[in-house]
Amino acid sequence: xxxxxxxxxxxxxxxxxxxxxxxxxxxxxxxxxxxxxxxxxxxxxxxxxxxxxxxxxxxxxxxxxxxxxxxxxxxxxxxxxxxxxxxxxxxxxxxxxxxxxxxxxxxxxxxxxxxxxxxxxxxxxxxxxxxxxxxxxxxxxxxxxxxxxxxxxxxxxxxxxxxxxxxxxxxxxxxxxxxxxxxxxxxxxxxxxxxxxxxxxxxxxxxxxxxxxxxxxxxxxxxxxxxxxxxxxx
Length: 234
Description:
With 234 residues, this protein is an alpha+beta fold.
């Protein structure tokens, strides 16, 4: 049977998790799916030896934002849902900087929350614990990135990774294909090859993210070469 709920692990800084979140929201519109938003830190999983953990820094882009998200989730999941939609659009579509504290405050106020909620989240050390617990759940399952989905039976899947989130019936069809993987627990990987034309399409979608970010992209401790994309984003 198609699952009625899913835990969607995301890092607000990840452009691919954001694209997949648009799709899963579309699935929710067409079904009775319940989305429970969970966290994962690309800063931590890609941390270089000798560099501070994100929870050891006064402010740490995605990690600090997720601490705000953790506090919102305590109010209710809908608050986190609405917040992630707005900060995701700010960075990944508008090339804004939701990871800047001033912008983060403005977004909270735009959503009807007090800007002081940011200070409350930073002062509450237990928000570190909530983000770390979600992060470690993915790591213990063998995960390394987002989007990662956990289903009610505990089965995790990485993906789908996409750049053009389908809508309507196509969104539901993709959901059926993804959840169909649950029937085959020992099928571990199926990947589409990427030709130069695919790389061009990906570059186009990621341009706002490249303009808005204030960090070097990493992948499992190695710098990702995005020089061509950065040049085209200027």
